[in-house]
Write a structure and sequence with these properties.
mainly alpha; MBOAT_fam; cell membrane; transmembrane; acyltransferase activity
């Protein structure tokens, strides 16, 4: 309902990034961040549900990754099974943290570069993995000065604001890396990124131009409102999930209301879903 609908917008822009303005490129970048999460998370959730029906309990693969306050936390919440696999079969055999600081940081870069290759042999995937390796290294290297700044500015006294900007920053750098992951080539990714500052001024103060730019990539007023409402609803559910697992919450709802909720969800899927042959993104990896 979300991933396939967003893919229409994403595919249009990424097919020819040089033909679009900054607002369209930014919308496509954010849309792909949401698309790949919805696509892969739903794929994993269906596998978890099917396994539980047969009496098996599989590892949870996603734990609200876009609520992460750091890149390290993001990778503890994103594709957890793959992260554990690389830790156990690559990072630990390479020496983990036992062979000096330089070797430890080198191992981190190797693991993330290989994780990029796991997704595909293209240079874009290697750059995506290397970027995340660099993010992790910078996060570790700046931990002490960041803690000092936090104490000096007394950010701990405004946890909601501090946490919001930490999550926003993490989402931004993750979305930046996704541009390389989604692009067909390194040249296309660089063109995509270079167009954003160049074309930004054209629609900055022109509301009509902004609306036309979004409408040109299928983000019309009605479609946009429906998409934003669905995305907001998804993240609200995820926020609730952080406090209490949804299965536990649903179990306490009266049976009649629970089934009414199921039928409402089914109706939303039938009304707003995209029923074509679009494959799961991660089905190719």
């Amino acid at each position: 309902m979300l991933a396939d609908r967003l893919s229409l917008l994403v595919s249009t822009v990424y097919a020819a990034p040089g033909s679009f303005g900054a607002l369209q490129l930014l919308a496509a970048a954010v849309a792909f961040s949401v698309q790949i999460y919805c696509d892969f998370s739903a794929y994993s959730d269906m596998a978890l549900g099917a396994a539980e029906v047969m009496g098996f309990r599989l590892m949870e693969n996603f734990r609200t990754p876009y609520f992460s306050r750091s890149i390290g936390e993001f990778w503890r919440r994103w594709h957890i099974s793959l992260s554990f696999w690389f830790r156990d079969y690559l990072y630990i055999p390479l020496g983990e943290n036992r062979r000096g600081t330089a070797r430890k940081y080198g191992n981190v870069l190797i693991v993330f570069a290989v994780s990029g290759l796991w997704h595909g042999a293209g240079l874009t995937f290697v750059v995506w993995g290397a970027l995340h390796g660099l993010y992790n290294l910078l996060s570790r290297l700046t931990r002490t000065p960041r803690g000092w700044v936090t104490n000096k500015l007394r950010l701990a006294k405004i946890p909601l604001i501090h946490g919001f900007f930490q999550r926003l920053y993490t989402f931004f750098i993750v979305t930046f890396a996704w541009v390389f992951f989604r692009s067909d080539s390194l040249q296309s990714a660089l063109l995509f990124l270079s167009r954003v500052p160049v074309a930004f001024g054209a629609t900055l103060f022109d509301a009509t131009a902004r609306m036309k730019a979004l409408n040109d990539i299928g983000f019309s007023a009605n479609n946009g409102i429906a998409l934003l409402a669905c995305i907001a609803g998804m993240f609200l559910l995820e926020a609730a999930q952080r406090r209490r697992p949804l299965p536990e919450s649903f179990a306490k709802v009266p049976l009649v209301l629970r089934w009414a909720g199921y039928y409402v969800l089914l109706l939303c899927i039938l009304l707003f879903g995209v029923f074509d042959s679009t494959p799961f993104i991660y089905g190719q990896f």
